[in-house]
Structure prediction request, 433 residues.
Amino acid sequence: MEPLITTKPPGPSAVAVLKRDAEVISQSMARHYPLVLERAQDVNLWDVDGNRYLDFTAGFAVMNVGWNHPKVVNAIQQQATLLTHGAFLAFCSETPVTFAQRLTEFLPPSLNRVCLTNSGAESVEAAMKLARYHTGGKYFIAFSNGFHGRTYGALSLTSTKAIQRAGFGPFLPVLHAPFPNPYRPQGCESTDASLAALEDIFKREVPAEEVAAIFVEPIQGEGGYIIPPKPFLREIRALCDELGILLVVDEVQTGCYRTGTFLASEQFGVKPDIVCLSKAIGGGLPLGAMVASEEVTTWLPGSHAGTFAGNNVACAAGLAVLDILSGEGFGAHVVDAGLHLLQRLNELQQDYDLIGDVRGMGLMAAIELVLSKETKEPATEERRVILNDAFENGLALLPAGESAIRFCPPLTIEKGDIDIGVEILRRSLKRVG
Ligand SMILES: Cc1ncc(COP(=O)(O)O)c(C=O)c1O
Prediction:
């Protein structure tokens, strides 16, 4: 199905909604183009004027099993007739328990205690609290250019863009070390330099005994889909083991087969002490999980909970998602489609000097736009124009980092749709020059 733009977006219905949106909704959100959604199915989005778009966003890596998957919709409908809110913090119900048990089957066996949440940031907050509680350490370490969410603890770890932190300090005590970036290895951005910076932190700023946890994304998501060198995560794991610091891996964006395996950290050969999940596990409903081992989960009844955590409808949707993900060949399809996407993007790079780098793992891929391949100066304005042009021609894309375009379609996408999307992007690149 070719995307079908019949009314130049934003059309009259979209303009009317956007006007009301501007009058009432907090202006703190940064929208990239004026898309007003009405419905969605698998890899297709429809706006309120009847235009159809091919989706390369999965709504920020949420709709991994495709938008409105019939099994997810059916599970939501069935559960809604029985029990929606179950006050899981005080009363037990079966669906959240089944979901948690099923989730642990996808994880390393040591990760067997599930704390249910409603979002990525809540999963991160829970991990910060548990790490402090269990270790007695007060400090956290995270990586520069990392993103972990926008609540106070999560925002303290986040260091992607100044605008996300400006005006909100002071923050929790977090020290940031550089994250290795293979495309921009100058400065101190190799694995060795990152480890040296960590050692320096322990020598000069805070002793390791006072550090509760190191938080890391296996691949930096909002920071630009930056894939560190293979040994990086293993080195961090070894350092945590040596110093008795917990390793928290934030798989909120990379999890649920986005990279071809349930957790991206599997591909780096690393087992976290705590893993944070959200986004795709709810199939479009707000659901998250912080999962740790029995030994680490030492907190007492009453020490952490939330009114909506363990919502029955969200967990029913999550169960349907896990069912779909466990289908024969799901991960293999992601790897195969991801290689196809990378090949198409590499072909684009041959034709357009604006594309400085192409990178990806599974269906988590990006191109980085630069003004010159020598200086690698970010082409931020060109990116804005390209994203808007692609949108006007029926392709939904999102930025990441300073000048990257991310490709994170529903994992159900077929090669034919990847080709259609890349061709729309090619035409946008041509128009920009
Ligand atoms: C790696 C990572 N952690 C945490 C979050 C925060 O998730 P949420 O927006 O659901 O709070 C995000 C969101 O993009 C993320 O990518």
Q: What stands out?
A: The chain has 13 helices and 15 strands. Residues 60, 119-121, 124, 147-149, 217, 221-222, 250, 252-253, 278 surround pyridoxal-5'-phosphate (CB under 6 Å). The longest strand covers residues 355-361. Residues 12-61+330-432 form a domain with the Aspartate Aminotransferase, domain 1 fold (CATH 3.90.1150.10).
